[in-house]
Write a structure and sequence with these properties.
mainly alpha
Length: about 240
């Protein structure tokens, strides 16, 4: 993969310079915003999005609450598993960061000494976005949009090639989708057990749904007198 970046005529390198070139023309304050957004902000936004979706599912309750929460639990687990899968991929490909092979890049984040392919940030955000889409289409679309923005930011910051980002998107999507059936098979019974427990039921639903017709009415002298009156009327 390192050999692909040797020539400036490579479309991957050309797109890198085009996107990173926007950083050179942007105001300094905007580059600082992009630095924090691309390094930390979008990851935090993705976590908050999953929490928001969990809160919505929890309040709605219903018979499928346990399976819905299980799908949301899979989102961060998929991201973590995808990063673990990326460890041997990085060691096998051994692609240097783009600023080590190419001059003139505006690198917004210093200290990146690990390999470039594939992007951990792109992998994490896309895995969470796709897993969230499986759980909830509306929240999932927002999550995928955040992942795409994260990929753009990584190239804008000069720390990844576009193909690093595309590879991260593919890896995150593959892990989230291919292992989702197995994850649901394992997590759904677990969340159902939590739902039925006295200590963890609030994690799955805010309150249990009850039928007003089945709600017991406390006995009182007035109620007992009224019942006896109704019985005498029926007997008459």
């Amino acid at each position: 993969m390192a050999g692909l970046a040797e020539s400036g005529s490579n479309p991957d390198v050309d797109l890198l310079y085009d996107i990173n070139g926007l950083a050179k023309d942007a105001p300094h304050w905007f580059d600082r915003v992009m630095e924090y957004v691309g390094e930390y902000g979008l990851l935090l936004a993705m976590v908050l999005l999953v929490v928001w979706c969990w809160w919505s599912v929890r309040r709605r309750g219903g018979e499928n609450a346990a399976s819905s929460v299980a799908a949301l639990v899979w989102a961060p687990l998929a991201a973590g598993l995808a990063v673990l899968v990326n460890v041997p991929i990085r060691g096998f490909v051994r692609r240097p960061r783009p600023f080590l092979d190419h001059q003139g890049l505006d690198v917004l984040v210093s200290g990146k000494t690990d390999f470039s392919f594939v992007s951990d940030h792109a992998t994490i955000t896309m895995a969470m976005g796709v897993a969230l889409f499986v759980a909830n289409r509306r929240f999932g679309l927002v999550g995928i949009a955040l992942a795409l923005l994260e990929g753009f930011c990584r190239v804008y910051m000069g720390v990844h090639y576009p193909t690093d980002v595309v590879g991260g998107f593919a890896l995150g999507t593959a892990v989230a989708l291919l292992l989702s059936p197995l994850a649901m098979l394992l997590l759904t019974p677990l969340l159902r057990a939590v739902e039925g427990s006295a200590w963890g039921g609030w994690l799955v639903r805010a309150r249990r749904d009850t039928d007003p017709e089945e709600t017991p009415v406390p006995d009182s002298p007035t109620n007992g007198k009224r019942a006896r009156t109704e019985e005498r009327d029926l007997a008459a």
